[in-house]
Amino acid sequence: MEPIQLTWMSRGSCRNYPAAAFFPSDGVGIDAARKICAECPVKTPCLEYALAERIEHGVWGGCSERERRRILKRRRESAAAPERETVPAR
Ligand code: SF4
User: Fold this and answer.
1) Protein residue with its CA nearest to atom 5 in ligand 1
2) CA–CA separation, 61 vs 33, rounded Å?
3) Ligand 1 pocket check for 49: Cβ under 6 Å
4) Residue 84 C-alpha to ligand 1 middle, in angstroms?
């Protein structure tokens, strides 16, 4: 297993905000955090890190806990789905 790279963390837009802004208690707070994440240059590695580490709390990569659970569920389902047979072209 490859080590997880964390160099992206130092470039996150959230470094300019209090950490509490990314652990909101309501939908308004989630939206505010999402807006910051939307412009973040490391949004993708941040989200993948949170998914890989199964981080349950906070907004990471612009996604709330609920959104990350949905992404993981979709990925599990698509990984478990049988491969579709391809019909050779004639
Ligand atoms: S995507 Fe959001 S939580 Fe992740 S590093 Fe960027 S600003 Fe921070």
Assistant:
1) 12
2) 10
3) no
4) 36
The string over 55-70, giving b where at least 16 C-beta atoms fall within 10 Å of a residue's C-beta and e elsewhere, is eeebbbbbbbbebbee
> Closest by alpha carbon to 35, among 48, 22, 47?
22
Express each pLDDT in 4-15 by its tens digit.
778 999 999 999
Query: For residues 38 and 13, is the Cβ–Cβ distance under 8 A?
Result: no
State pTM to two decimals. 0.86
Measured CA to CA, the distance from residue 12 to residue 61 in angstroms comes to: 10
Closest ligand 1 atom to Cα of 36: 7
Q: Is the Cβ atom of 14 under 6 angstroms away from ligand 1?
A: yes
